[in-house]
Specification:
By secondary structure, the protein is an alpha/beta fold. It contains 16 helices and 23 strands. It has a six-stranded mixed beta sheet, covered by helices on one side. A six-stranded mixed beta sheet has the order 7-8-9-10-13-14. A five-stranded parallel beta sheet has the order 19-23-22-20-21. The longest helix is centred in the middle third of the chain and has 16 residues. GO terms for molecular function: hydrolase activity; metal ion binding; sulfur dioxygenase activity.
Amino acid sequence: MLLERIYDEDLAQASYLIGCQATGEALVVDPRRDIRQYLELAAHHGMRITAVAETHIHADFLSGTRELAAATGATAYVSGEGGEDWQYGFEAQRLHDGDTVALGNITITARHTPGHTPEHLSYLVTDGAFTDEPGYYLTGDFVFSGDVGRPDLLDEAAGGQDTRFLGAKQLFASLKDAFLTLPDHVQVYPGHGAGSACGKALGALPATTVGYERKYSWWAQYLANDDEQGFIDELLAGQPDAHAYFARMKRQNKTGPALLGELSELRRLEVTEIVRGLEAGTLVVVDTRSPDEVHLGTVPGALAVPGGAAKAATYGAWGYDPEAEDTPLVLLAPDAEAAGEIREHLVRVGVDTVAGYTPTFEGLPHVVPSTVAPAALESFLAEHQDAVLVDVRNRTEHAEGHVPGSAQLNVGKVIFHPDQLPAKDTGPLVTYCQSGLRNTVAAAALRRAGYDVVELEGSYSGWSAWNAQQNTPQTETAGAAR
């Protein structure tokens, strides 16, 4: 048996390829929408992808189940559990608790593990060439290394009303009945790692075991003592902000993401073409440079995706809403290959309208983003009494310490919740995050949305260092008092 983990550092998301080496058949679980890597991996191992499955209706990325099945002719499998409200809207075979998928010598058994979502499936894998007992468990967003999937996303991002409590109860039951009943040696392969917003304490380890989680996870003591309420209380406390784009992912994954087909190479756009597009409002530039470079000058109305492809899906989904607009994007990239890699990340979150790329901003309009130094913040706010301080970090970070007078609105929500911001013509927004990276993304998106934005230099770290310096008694140097 072959088991390969395909990990996306951008979204902290894991897909898996399981293959039977005897027959050359392979199954992919929870694929992304950019499917090139799965096709290349299967070809590398001399296998053909005959089945594609997903664990649940994802909230943090667009599923590639339909895309990969269409490209390979594989059978698509999705959950048929969860009741009428949680049925997929596209053609695929439905799996219920106990159903199996045969893959040569391998048997994949679906287990209904609700809690994170009502329809959630996990997959037990039995390598029939060696044993008739399962040895591997693909748990999706059910069990992570050191954590479990949060049950409050339906409330936070999908418009649910107090669904978190039922979800937490279901999760307790799933752990009790569908996880802890397994032998300790069963290896667990989760759908996310550290950095994902699908839990609050995800570990960075790529895999764990039933026995390790039974003994060392934070939730183990509650299951051992049959303390459901204690489990629920700790599970729901301190969950991070859910990004606003999660609601769109849920809707699109339920109905079935649009098929992309084979992506052609992006073309380089001429400067004159970009200038005309900017003037007509028919193009949006995506600045992929570092925050320091962006603050030296950028294109007016540009979005910020610092670091190029590395976090393009995350930053792109924070700053651009394809349901609100479909203006094509122009990516700053050195060549077509680099631009294509950025596009692959963007389509993972449904940002599909990429027109082309430019390797340089030379000849394009230029603007320097407004900033204010920590030392000048107090006088700036006194001069602009209608200014509003906005902390774009997570609510947990804000609770641990913030610039006095600031309101908290996570970077993943700023353009999606104008009701939580003042009117655009009332005064400037002074924004900050922890170090300035997230704030660069947020500020660019807000400026594009029409807000007057001034960024706090150094963000909270810079302000904290300056504030500490002001409150530290200064030692007199020799002769200073003379």
